[in-house]
Amino acid sequence: MAIFELDLPTDVVAHSLADATQLAEKLADDVSQALRFAIETDGVASLVVSGGRSPIPFFEALSRRDLDWSRVQVSLADERWVPVGHADSNEGLVRRHLMVGEAAKASFFGLYRPASTVEAAARQAAQGLAELKQPIDVLVLGMGDDGHTASLFPGNATLGQALDPACPETCMPMLAPAVPHQRITLTYPVLASAHLQCLSIQGMAKLDALEQALGAPALERPIKAFLHSPLEIYWCP
After folding, report:
1. pLDDT tens column, 59-86
2. Residue 26 belongs to a domain with what CATH number?
């Protein structure tokens, strides 16, 4: 099975790349082009990315692109509720692999807050995003084998609220099935506001998960909520 064999909505663009290196370079080219356009149009561009290990080649490729990085704002689709110095911190990952060289001039809006509870941390994170340019210019998502994206995990009691297009919250706490369990995620209306929405996935297991999501409700496979224009999918074996 290849990505073009999936019964994707006709308004979703699919890019099939030969390997992870080509995927990272193609995604970096397209993201940097969109950021450059936003800078030229509005004077500033906002980029929201996901964490984990798989985006590292993309982060490193993007950091090498010729941009006025001082006019780029970077934030996260979700964050593990751990300090920035923790090995599982998405912010730490982005700072090590994306915000290097010229890209270190970008502004960063983190989600972690050392509050007494993850609920309080989510509220504080939302306040900290007040100066992030919205609607977001570019969003780069990943997807788990269970169909989650950002930290919108199936089975959470508040998932329906977080996926509601009318949700008034910017950030919400979520529980992940893996350690560290406590997460903070941007909600669907914030994520889905992005002018360019990219989903980066690798391997046949992710294609299987995407195929399952196409036939499932968003509460069971949250990525389903994003499977429409202006989404562009980047996949390699």
Report:
1. 999 999 999 999 999 999 999 999 999 9
2. 3.40.50.1360
